[in-house]
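The instructor's notes for this session suggest beginning with a concrete chain rather than abstract definitions. Hand out the sequence below and ask the class to guess, before any prediction is shown, which regions might be ordered.
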Amino acid sequence: MTANAANPGTPEEKSTVASTCLSSAHVPQDCPILHGLGDGDQLTMTTIAVVEDSALIANAVKRILEEEGYTVRTYSDGTTALRGLIDEPVGLAILDLKLADMDGTELLRRLREYSDVPVIVLTGVWTEEPHQIEGFQQGADDYIIKPIRRDILAERVKAVLRRTPGRMPDSSRYPNTLERGDLKMDKERRVSYWKGKRLLNDHGHDLSRSCFEIVWALAKDPGAVQSSDELTKIGYVGSLDDAILTINKAFRRTDPGFDAIQNVRGVGYVFMS
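After discussion, reveal the predicted structure:
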C-alpha cells in the first residue's frame, strides 16, 4: 500500500511525518501520529513516565501530556526505565511493548515485583490476542494502539488515574514500616532513620529506591546472610558493592562508627542489629 500523510508506511516515512508534526510549538491537530486532543478537564499535576524507544513518538506523547498539565519523564530503553521507575516512582507509566533491549511484557513483569504503578501499554500489535492477554496477565491497566489519537491518549490517562487514585502496594507484599534496634524505615514514604537521624545520600536526598530495598531486605531478617545475587535482584543494581558503599556512607554520615552491615566473603551481606 502506498503511504500518505494520513497513513505513513515505512519507518522512514513515519519518521518524516512525525518530524513534521513535531516541528511546531504545538503538535498540529492533523498529525497522524497523534490525532485531535479534546479540551478536557485538567487533572492534578501528576508525573507520568513514558517508555518508548522512538524519540519522535516519545517526544510527541510527552508534549501532549505536558499540555494536559502533567510532568513527564521519558525513557528510551527497558533497563534504564526499570531502574528509574524503582528509584523515582511516578503516578502512571506508559509503556511500549516493542523495546529494543527488552520485551515490554518482560519489563512489566519485572516492574510488578517492585511497584503497583498503573501502566498503560502502547503498542502497534495489539490485534494479536495472545499478546493482549499476556499484557493484562503481567499487570497492564489499559492499552492504546498506534497510531495514537490525541484525544484517546488524554482520556485514557485520565480514566486510569481516576480508577487508581493513590494506589498503594499490597500490604502483604509491602509492609509499611520496619524497626530493628536503632533503625526505623517507612516504605510508604521511603524514608529511613538511624538513631533518630534521617539517612541521606551524598546529594542530601533520601536513599534511592534500590538502596532502600537492599537495607530493608537485610534489616527485616537480622543475622541472616543475604546472598549477593539475591540482593542484586532486590535492588536491581548493576554493582551491589557500589550500592552497599552508598548505603554505608549514608549511615556513617549520622554515625561514624556504623558497622551493622557486614560483608560475608564469597556469600553476601548481613545486618547485625
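Then share the key points. The longest helix spans residues 240-254. The chain has nine helices and 14 strands.
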